[in-house]
């Protein structure tokens, strides 16, 4: 674990941002903790790019409920230029039909075991370099959206450790896995009683 991540006192900032992701994030330091409110002018991918400009080559993970071609192309460029040493995609299993081709592209670039199917609505990213362990989360999806959005960035700490542990615990499921297995892997039953969970049986059906 990098020494930077052991710093107990965070360097906290709160900003209202109308500019770019790089301007919003500023200089990343050990123990950085940023909370920002934006107008949707940058996306989670933009924030990842701004962070990688400071961290150097890093391992990247994305938690999302759907993915578009732009994000796959962007991650591919990062892989080719060495900024993304590895990529892990944690995606809602309901996206398998709508995003099947894009998921295959991701696996082709980062390996067959680089995708985790879950029931997911979290928007999270991690960036782990030789120096920094960054956790990004926010209301924004991978694409930009011109409305109020909230964004958080922290370096090191228990929040990063929690997300990384969850990622490593998730099994690699086959593309044709059933909904029950996806729910089991996501441990949704640990938070809901069986009667309440029955209301949500079956994965989300995507509109064509």
The neighbouring-strand order within the major sheet is: 1-2-8-7-6-3-4-5
Look at the structure and name the CATH superfamily. Answer: Endonuclease Chain A
Q: Helical element count?
A: 8
Regarding CATH, which class? Alpha Beta
Largest sheet: 8 strands, mixed
What percentage of residues falls in helices of 4 or more residues? 25-40%
**CATH fold naming:** Endonuclease, Chain A
Query: Could you tell me the mean pLDDT?
Result: 89
- Give the number of domains: 1
Task: Give me some keywords for this one.
208 residues; single chain; alpha/beta; eight-stranded mixed β-sheet; Endonuclease, Chain A
How are the SSEs ordered, and which strands pair?
Elements: E1 11-16, H1 21-25, E2 32-38, H2 44-55, E3 58-64, H3 69-80, E4 84-92, H4 95-98, H5 100-110, E5 115-118, E6 124-129, E7 133-138, E8 149-155, H6 158-169, H7 179-186, H8 194-198
Parallel strand pairs: 1-2, 3-4, 4-5
Antiparallel strand pairs: 2-8, 3-6, 6-7, 7-8
What does this structure look like?
- The protein is an alpha/beta fold and about 210 residues long.
- It has one domain (about 10-15, about 30-190): 2-Layer Sandwich (Endonuclease, Chain A), CATH 3.30.870.
- The protein has helices spanning about 20-25, 45-55, 70-80, 95-100, 100-110, 160-170, 180-185, 195-200, and strands at about 10-15, 30-40, 60-65, 85-90, 115-120, 125-130, 135-140, 150-155.
- The chain has an eight-stranded mixed β-sheet with strand order 1-2-8-7-6-3-4-5, sandwiched between helices.
- It is globular and about 45 Å long.
- The chain starts with 10 loop residues before the first strand and ends in a 10-residue tail after the last helix.
- The relative contact order is 0.19.
- Residues about 1-10 have low confidence and may be disordered.
């Amino acid at each position: 674990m990098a020494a930077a991540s052991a710093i107990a006192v965070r360097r906290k900032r709160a900003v209202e941002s109308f500019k770019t992701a790089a301007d919003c994030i500023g200089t990343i330091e050990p123990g950085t903790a940023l909370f920002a409110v934006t107008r949707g002018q940058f996306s989670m991918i933009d924030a990842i790019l701004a962070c990688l400009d400071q961290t150097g080559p890093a391992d990247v993970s994305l938690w999302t409920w759907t993915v578009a071609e732009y994000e796959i192309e962007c991650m591919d460029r990062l892989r080719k230029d060495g900024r993304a040493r590895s990529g892990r995609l944690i995606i809602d299993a309901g996206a398998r039909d709508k995003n099947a081709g894009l998921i295959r592209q991701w696996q082709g670039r980062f390996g067959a075991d680089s995708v985790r199917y879950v029931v997911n609505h979290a928007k999270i990213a991690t960036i782990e370099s030789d120096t920094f362990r960054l956790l990004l989360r926010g209301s924004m999806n991978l694409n930009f959206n011109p409305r109020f959005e909230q964004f958080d960035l922290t370096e090191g700490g228990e929040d990063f450790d929690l997300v990384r542990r969850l990622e490593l615990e998730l099994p690699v499921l086959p593309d044709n896995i059933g909904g029950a297995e996806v729910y089991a892997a996501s441990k949704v039953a640990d938070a809901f009683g069986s009667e309440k969970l029955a209301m949500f049986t079956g994965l989300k059906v995507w509109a064509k």
